[in-house]
Amino acid sequence: MEWLTRGGWMMYPILLCSVVALGVVLERFYVIFIRYAQFPQEQFDKLQDLVKKGDIKSAKEMLKQQSSAQKSIYLAMLNQQDEGSQNKAAELEGNSILFRLKERLSILSTIGSVTPLMGLLGTVFGMIDVFSKLAQMQGAANPGMLADGIWQALLTTAAGMTIAIPVVLFYHFFNRHIENIIHQLQTTANILADQLSNIRSAKNAKNTATIDKNRDSK
């Protein structure tokens, strides 16, 4: 608190930025690592087995019991009957997931960029104040007073960088994990799409064979 007071008025907006950044970091941890946690591989294997058997109803029921919000993209694909609608639904749901994952990360980017500048600005104001007082003094300047004024002015720069460094690290850490989530979604969605396509092809082939058989019997 003493450093906060000595650093000048610019310390308060820097402190506010740190509180906002902490809130965003905690909220993103919940969203990215809990709400949108990567879909368990064993559950996806079970989903594949059900789809291969053509048991789409059981596959949907299994997905509805999952806690991961990523299940929405698989449900969107299973709810479509043709390939075009399926691809469109997967794309729309994937974009929606990506938006929710990246939501508010721009706040961290902004704080990581702005707080060092705020600290530097506070230091400039502090140095202006120090040298203004020195200019008003008569006689030799007191080195102790000069040193005291300078270190107080530098507090805002230190505070700004102290906030910016971890914020930038968290920003890149979150982005990297989001890339992993999106890569997993794209891979698994493509696998599921191929399986659904094979089921439709087999069904069409069966229907065609039935029609030909009925025609021959007539």
From TrEMBL:
InterPro entries in the record: ExbB/TolQ_transport (IPR050790), MotA_ExbB_proton_chnl (IPR002898)
Its membrane topology: Multi-pass membrane protein
UniProt key word Transmembrane helix: yes
Membrane-crossing residue ranges in chain numbering: 12-33, 105-130, 150-174
Gene Ontology biological-process entries: protein import
Cellular location(s): Cell membrane; Membrane
Keywords, ordered alphabetically: Cell membrane, Membrane, Protein transport, Transmembrane, Transmembrane helix, Transport
GO cellular component: plasma membrane
Chain ranges of the MotA/TolQ/ExbB proton channel domain: 76-186
Similarity section: Belongs to the exbB/tolQ family.
Protein name: MotA/TolQ/ExbB proton channel family protein
Species of provenance: Shewanella algicola
